[in-house]
Amino acid sequence: MESALQSPRFYITTAIDYPNAAPHIGTALEKVGADVMARFRRMQGMDTLFSMGLDENSQHVLRAAEEANVSARAWVDRMDEVFQGAWASLNISYDRFIRTTEEVHIAASEELFRRSLERGDIYKGTYSGWYCPNCNTFYDDDDLVDERCPNHPTLTPEWLDEENYFFALSRYQEPLERYIADHPDFIVPTTRRNEVLGWLRDGLRDFSTSRLVRNLTGERWGITVPGDDDHVMYVWYDALTNYLTSAGFAHDDERYARYWPADVHVIGKDITRFHCLYWPAMLMSAGVPLPRQVVVHGWWNLEGKPFSKTTGNVLDPRDAVAEFGTDPVRYYLMREGSWFQDGNFARANLVQRYNAELANDLGNLLNRTVTMIGRYCDGRLPAGSASAAGERETAVQHAAETALRDATAALDGWEFGRALDAIWQLVRRGNQYIDESQPWRLARDPAQRAVLEAVLATSAESLRFQATLLGPFMPGTADRMLAQLGLDGIAPGAWRDLRWQPDGSGRPVPGGSPLFPRLSA
Ligand SMILES: [Zn+2]
C-alpha cells in the first residue's frame, strides 16, 4: 500500500512462548497489553508491525511430545492451533505469528550466528554448570536456591560438562554500559533498568550458545550450528533472533529496511537479562542496530496465589472469555493494577468491575442515549444547534478533549490503568450530564425542543469519543458502540483524527441491545 509507506512505522513484539502447555491468563496479560499498544499506534496512523509467536526449538517440546506420544513436529503443530486459538479468543491483532521452526527463521539464526563467528565473538570452549532444562540455562552453585533452580523451586538442575560454542558477552561489558547510559529509555521501567545496571556492575560472563547434540535426549531437534553438525544452537540464541526474522532479516530486505530496528520488545520480568544484555550484545556483534526499547511488565497471581500447573492454580484465557466475553477480560486485565507491577486476577473483582463500570457506567450511558434519540427524535441524530448549547455542553466537550489528551499521555507511558481512568472520567461525566439535563423533562415542553436536541447531540458526540478512545482496549465494544450510534467501526488513524465535531447530518441512530448485560455475583 502506497499510503502505508508514507506513514511512520511502529514495530512491536512480545516474547514468544514455549509450546509445552496451553497459555494461561498471565501469559495473556502480556499479549493484551501489546495488542492495546499496537492498536493505539495503528489508530494514530502508524504503519504497525505487531509480532508474536512460538519458541519451538526447546527441549521442552521433545518432552511434551514424548508424553503425548506424538512426534515433536506433530506436537508443535497442535500447540500452534491451541495458542493461536487462545489469542483469537482475546482478539489479539498480530500481523505476524512466527514459529521458530520456519525455514526463514533458521536462515536468519544461521546468518546472525555466522556473523559473530566471523568476528571472533563466538568461540569453542568447555562448559560446566547446573543446567535447568526448564530455563534452558546453566547456573553456578551460588545461583541455586536449596540446590534447586532459582526459577523452578521443584527442579534440581543436573551437572553438565560439555564442549560448547560460547558468545563473548564479556567483551561487550563496556559497550553495553555506555549504551544503557546513553539511552535512559532503553529499559522501562526504571526498577528494571537498575536491575540490569546491577548485573553489569557484577560483571558479564560469556554464555553458551550451543548444545552438544549427543548429550540431548530424544529426536534431533533445534537449529544446527552453521558448519558443525555436532551442535544445535542454544534455544535462547535462536529465540531472540525471532524479532529479526519477523522484520525480514536475511530474507526480505525491503521489509527489513522498513521495520528494523524494533520500537519495542514487550517482555516479562523473568527474561530481562536475555533481552537487555545478551540480545543487545548479539546485535552489536553482528553489526545490527539495537531495538529502541524493552518494556518489562510484572507478573500476575490468580486469586492471590502464583499460577501453577502442578497445584492446578491456572486459568485458560479461553475459559475466561467463554464466561465473561472477550472485551470484559481485556478490560479487566488492563484496568486492574499497574502494567509494571505484579497484579492479581480475582473473579469476584472482575464481576464487580464488569457490573459497576461496564454495565452501569458505560453500557447504561449508551443505552439511555440511543433509546432517547429513538423515542424523541425518530431515531435520527438531532443537529444540536450551537445556539442552544450552554455551559454544560461546553463542559462535556472539555471533558472529552481532556480524556483524549490524558489517555494519549498515559498510553505513551504504558499506563493502561491511567488511560482507562481518563476515559472513565468522561463516561461518568456523560452520565452526570444526562442526570442534570433531564432530557425526559425537556421532552415534555415543546419550548425546550432545541435544548433537548443539543443534549442528545452532545451525549452522542461524547459517546463517539468514548468509543474511539476505547478502541485499543475493547475493539469489539468500540465497533458495537459506533454501530449503535449509526457510525462505521474504528478505522486506522481514528485516534489521530479525533476532534469534537457534532454531526448535523441527521444520520439514523439505530441503537441496539445493551452492551453488557449484568452478571450475578
Ligand atoms: Zn529453571
Q: How would you state the average pLDDT, rounded?
A: 94
User: What profile does the largest beta sheet have?
Assistant: 6 strands, parallel
Enumerate the strands of the largest sheet in spatial order, edge to edge or round the barrel. 3-2-1-12-13-7
Please tell me how large the radius of gyration is.
Answer: 26 Å
Structural class: alpha/beta
Task: Provide the list of bound ligands, each named once.
Answer: zinc ion
Q: Pick out the low-confidence regions.
A: none
User: What is the CATH superfamily classification of the domain at 347-484?
Assistant: Isoleucyl-tRNA Synthetase, Domain 1
Task: Please tell me what the overall shape is.
Answer: elongated
CATH class wording of the domain at 347-484: Mainly Alpha
Gap between N and C termini? 49 Å
Secondary structure: helix percent = 40-55%
- By CATH, the architecture of the domain at 347-484 is named Orthogonal Bundle
CATH names the topology of the domain at 347-484 as Isoleucyl-tRNA Synthetase, Domain 1
Residues in β-strands, percent: 5-15%
How many individual helices?
A: 18
Structure description:
With 521 residues, the protein is an alpha/beta fold. It has a domain at 347-484: Isoleucyl-tRNA Synthetase, Domain 1 (Orthogonal Bundle), CATH 1.10.730.10. It contains 18 helices and 16 strands. It has helices spanning 2-6, 25-43, 59-68, 72-89, 103-118, 173-182, 190-202, 235-246, 253-259, 272-286, 317-324, 326-335, 347-377, 391-412, 416-437, 439-442, 449-470, 475-484, and strands at residues 9-14, 47-54, 96-99, 122-132, 137-139, 158-167, 187-188, 207-208, 210-212, 224-225, 228-233, 264-268, 294-297, 300-302, 305-306, 343-345. Strands 3-2-1-12-13-7 form a 6-stranded parallel beta sheet, sandwiched between helices. A 4-stranded antiparallel beta sheet has the order 5-4-6-8. A 3-stranded antiparallel beta sheet has the order 9-11-10. Strand 1 (9-14), helix 2 (25-43) and strand 2 (47-54) form a beta-alpha-beta unit. Bound molecules: zinc ion (ZN). The site of zinc ion has 7 residues, from loops.
